[in-house]
Design goal:
mainly alpha
């Protein structure tokens, strides 16, 4: 069983010297998590179903990528508690023993949903955010309240926080993703968060006219 302190979760891994391009492993793991976090049928959440779906989107042969999908699930996502078996589908053909036990399909755990919130390719993260906080512990309620409010006006900022949090875990900056505790980010040097904090605190001190001028300025450069 792997431990989180030496995680092999590679969703942010990039090639060196290639302008931040994600590795094949990173893209594959992100695709698996995206599928398991989406509203697709159970057959598409089996190993072969995931392989077929990814292959179809990438224009590849599913059998050629099956071993990679199998390895990511069985050696990384399942041992780390990011995904878990959600049930089994009966088989009508194949070995009798396999027909009896069926084919497993998977879904994301609470930890997996948290990781999914950091993946920009997922289009319905608001639904996942609601699902994540529906399972929140008392210690996580503080963050649930503020994030549920600011996401309505600043979704990009909100999801960037999840991205930084999960990436810090992937970089072994802290050992446990759960319970969800954003105060862990305090000990991580992140210039963009510092800049965002500085802008917000400065904006709050501006007069009404100065705020209007600042907004016009930002609209010209973004």
């Amino acid at each position: 069983m792997k431990t989180e302190s030496n995680t092999k979760l590679a969703i942010f891994n990039t090639f060196k010297g290639k302008d931040g391009n994600l590795t094949g492993e990173a893209n594959r793991q992100r695709a698996i998590i995206t599928i398991l976090g989406s509203k697709v049928n159970s057959a598409e959440k089996t190993r072969s179903g995931i392989s077929r779906k990814i292959a179809e989107e990438d224009g590849k042969t599913w059998k050629n990528i099956y071993s990679g999908i199998f390895r990511d699930l069985d050696e990384i996502l399942l041992p780390l508690g990011i995904a878990e078996e959600d049930g089994r589908l009966p088989l009508k053909r194949g070995p009798k023993a396999l027909q009896e036990i069926g084919i497993p399909y998977y879904h994301l755990t609470k930890k997996g949903i948290l990781i999914a919130l950091s993946i920009s390719e997922i289009t319905d993260r608001e639904r996942l955010l609601e699902e994540f906080f529906s399972k929140s512990e008392s210690t996580e309620k503080e963050f649930e309240g503020i994030l549920s409010k600011i996401i309505k006006t600043s979704p990009n900022f909100t999801y960037s926080i999840f991205q930084k949090y999960v990436k810090a875990f992937c970089d072994n900056k802290f050992k446990e993703l759960l319970p969800f505790d954003l105060s862990k980010l305090r000990n991580i040097s992140d210039e963009s968060l510092s800049i965002q904090k500085e802008i917000l605190l400065t904006f709050l001190k501006l007069s009404k006219q100065e705020k209007a001028d600042a907004i016009r300025f930002l609209e010209k450069i973004t």
